[in-house]
Design goal:
- The longest helix has about 120 residues.
- Helix content is about 95%, strand content about 0%.
- It is rod-shaped.
- The chain is mainly alpha-helical.
- It contains 1 helix and no strands.
């Protein structure tokens, strides 16, 4: 036969077992939530690493384009500097031709004036 102390002990054990089941269930829920958080964080980390790699690739491309543009600019500047004497010479020739044109115009105007004077 079961004594009162044994009955009380069985009740305490079943109560402890019930608490343990509740505790276990709560722990199981917390583990699931933790696993979900870890999965989300891993997914976010993978996405962030992919984005970082993409941005790094873009940065490398941008640096290459910048280097290309700088090289082109240096070539154009060198070309402009090499053509500067030619431009100055052409400007000088243009000024001389304009001056000559003005002289010719003045001479023609004088000649026309003389012809007009002869016709009167």
């Amino acid at each position: 036969m079961i004594t009162h102390s044994e009955d009380q002990q069985v009740q305490e054990e079943s109560g402890a077992l019930a608490v343990s089941v509740d505790d276990f269930s709560a722990l199981e829920d917390r583990v699931r939530r933790t696993v979900d958080v870890v999965k989300r964080e891993r997914h976010a980390r993978v996405a962030a690493e992919a984005r970082a790699a993409e941005l790094e690739g873009r940065a490398i491309q941008a640096e290459a384009r910048q280097a290309d543009i700088e090289a082109r600019a240096a070539r154009v500047e060198a070309q402009a500097q090499s053509q500067s004497p030619v431009i100055e010479k052409l400007q000088s020739e243009l000024s001389a031709l304009r001056a000559e044109r003005d002289q010719v115009r003045q001479r023609v105007e004088r000649l026309l004036a003389q012809l007009d004077a002869l016709e009167l």
